[in-house]
Structures are given as structure tokens and as C-alpha cells.
Amino acid sequence: MDEKELLRTVPLFSELNDDAITSLSRLAARRKYPKDTVVFFENEEGDSLFMILDGRIKVTILGDDGREIILTMLASGDLFGEMALLDNEPRSATAIAVEESELLLLHRNDFQAVISENPAISGALIKVLSARLRRANHQISTLALLDVYGRVARVILDMAREEGRRLKDGRIAFRRATHQEIANRIGTTRETVTRMLKDLERQGLVKIEGREIVLQPGFEKAFD
Ligand code: CMP
């Protein structure tokens, strides 16, 4: 795919006309990040917006005790790093490539120029931010209202819906995340997640199939 086709795959830019895409392709830089490299740290000054062309990025906050809280996992088409550009505050979280990832970078001034020349981008950006706030509200309710068993089940359902695929029989299969990753999304321990998953398996609500977790009939109804 050439640079311009690639830019069109980023939802934020999908409405731009050809001229705008051409000027954007001159401004944006492509960069590869090997697995497990940090794109930026929380509290750093930020001067770029990032769009994911390929790979997966973990957005995370480290507690004083070294514990990690995963805010979200982002994949191709998603953007991040816009907050520091919009409010001139430091980075609100750390971004780490959890797989080899290819990102598109846009510098602060270029980002601002692109927005002012293409007001439709502001609308698209507001949509992205609203979707993120909805998701964060959902996470807050999960953390505040459910016990740890409910939290594990809910985060599994969220992950399955966000990144999984529907099988022909209606079940959802998704990447077998590590128990530590699931734990870090809901502020619990790896051991607790292992215990809860065993329990869900015993009840016939989840099945581990190779490198995937498959939600069994009844799971969605029970934990939605
Ligand atoms: P910025 O603050 O510049 O750097 C960290 C980035 O992580 C932030 O911009 C957002 O792009 C992203 N981010 C922060 N909090 C969340 C969240 N709750 N959900 C999804 N992305 C987030």
C-alpha cells in the first residue's frame, strides 16, 4: 500500500479529499517500534500524535508501587497521543508497543495546521474522544460495581467484543491474553485471575482452545 492509501485507512482521515491526503502524506512520518519498546512515558512532554498502521499498543499507568494499570489496548486504525497536543499538558499515560508496530507520526504544528485546514477532522476527533469516554465510563462502572469475579468476567467479555471474532456458531473467540494482562486491567492479581478463569471453565462458560479463549453460550447473557 502506498503512503496515501495507508493514510485513508486511518478513520480520522477517511473523509479528507485527495489534496489534503497528499499534503498530509508529506507531513507524516512512518516509524517502526520493535516489540516491548516504549513509544513515550507518562508525564513526558508530548509533541506528536500517533496513528497505528500495524501492531498493538498498550496504554498504561504505573502506580507508585510499580503496579501497572492497563487503560486500553489499541490496534491498527487507532490513534493516541492527541491529549497532550490538545491541552498542552504532559502525557497522561505511557504507550508501549506490545508487538512490532508501525506508527505514523504527526508533529504538533502539522496536526494543528491539518485540523484548521480540514474542520471535518475536529468532528471526527470529537467522535473518537466521546467513544473513549463511553468506554472509560463502562470501565469505571465495572470497577466500582462488580466484585472481583464479575470484573474478571466483564473484562473478558469486553476484550472478546473489542478484539475477538464471532465463530459460525455464534460464540466469540479471542486472543488468549496472559492472566497478568487481564489482572492489570482490573487492578487484581494474576493468581486471582487464574482462579476465576478455572472457575468459569468448570462452569462451562469459557473454553481454552489453543491460543484462544472461546466464550461459551450463556456467557454474554450472564455477564453483559
Ligand atoms: P496523551 O495524554 O498525549 O498520551 C497518552 C495517551 O494515551 C493519551 O494522549 C491518549 O491518546 C491515550 N489515552 C489516555 N487515556 C486513555 C483511555 N482511558 N483510553 C484510551 N486511550 C487513552
Give a structural overview.
- There is one protein chain.
- This protein has nine helices and twelve strands.
- With 224 residues, the protein is an alpha+beta fold.
- The protein folds into two domains: 3-143, Jelly Rolls; 147-223, Winged helix-like DNA-binding domain superfamily/Winged helix DNA-binding domain (Arc Repressor Mutant, subunit A, Orthogonal Bundle), CATH 1.10.10.
- The strands form three sheets. It has a four-stranded antiparallel sheet. It has a four-stranded antiparallel sheet with strand order 2-7-4-5.
- A hairpin with a 5-residue loop joins β4 (56-62) and β5 (68-75).
- α4 (108-117) crosses α5 (119-145) and α6 crosses α8 (190-202).
- The termini are far apart.
- The model has no long low-confidence stretch (mean pLDDT 92).
- It binds adenosine-3',5'-cyclic-monophosphate.
Structural class: alpha+beta
CATH architecture heading of the largest domain? Sandwich
The H/E string reads HHEEEEEEHEEHHHEEHHEEH
Radius of gyration: 19 Å
Average pLDDT level: 92
Identify every distinct bound molecule in the structure, by name, code or SMILES.
adenosine-3',5'-cyclic-monophosphate
What's the CATH class label of the largest domain? Mainly Beta
* Count of strand segments: 12
What distance lies between the first and last C-alpha atoms, to the nearest angstrom? 39 Å
Total domain units: 2
Strand fraction: 25-35%
Q: Going by CATH, what is the homologous superfamily of the largest domain?
A: Jelly Rolls
Biggest sheet layout: 4 strands, antiparallel
* Strand arrangement in the largest pleated sheet: 1-8-3-6
CATH-derived topology of the largest domain: Jelly Rolls
